[in-house]
Amino acid sequence: MLPYLFILLAIAVRFLPFAGPLNILPHAWHFTPLAASLLFFGARGSKRQIWIPLVLLAATDVILTKFIYSYPFSWDHLVTWAWYAAILWLGTNLREKSGPVRVVGAALASSVSFFLISNFAVWAAWAMYPRGFHGLMMSYAAGLPFFRGTVESDLFFSLAMFGTPVFLHALASWMHKSSGDHTAAA
Known about the structure:
Blueprint: H1 2-15, H2 34-44, H3 51-68, H4 76-92, H5 100-125, H6 133-185
C-alpha cells in the first residue's frame, strides 16, 4: 500500500504550485518526492504492476505540459519517461538489500542522472541554448540552482520513505509489547 501512496504523494506535489494556499512544499526548487517514490515503488511495489507509476507520471506530465503550462509536447518527454523507468529499475535493486548506504547511493544516482539527462534533453530539444559544447555547459549551469533542491529532496524523501516501514514495524512491536505487559499485569 505504501508504494502506491508515495506515488500519489509525488503526483499531488507536482500539482501543489497550482493549489494556492494549499501549496506547502517548495516545489519551485525541485524539492519533490518524485525520485524517492519511484525508488520505493521499485523496491517495495508489485513487480507485476511496476508500469503503474510510469503511466501515472507520464499522464501527469501530459496534463501539466498541455493544460497547465500550455507548452508544446516534444520528444524530451520521452527522455523523462525513460528516466522514470530507469529509476524504477534502480529501485528493484533495493528489493533484497535496502540499507541506508544503498538507499543514499540510489538517491544520489537519481539526482545526478536526472540533472545530467534532463539538462541535456532541454539543450538538445529546445532552442534555448546555442548548439555546441558551450551551449550544453550553459544548460548545465542554468540547472545548478535546481540541482541542490533535487539532491536534498531525493535524500530526504528516500530516507523517509524507506524508513517509514521500519518505523511502523518498530511501533507495532512496541505497541504489541506494551499491550502484552498490561495483559500480564491484569
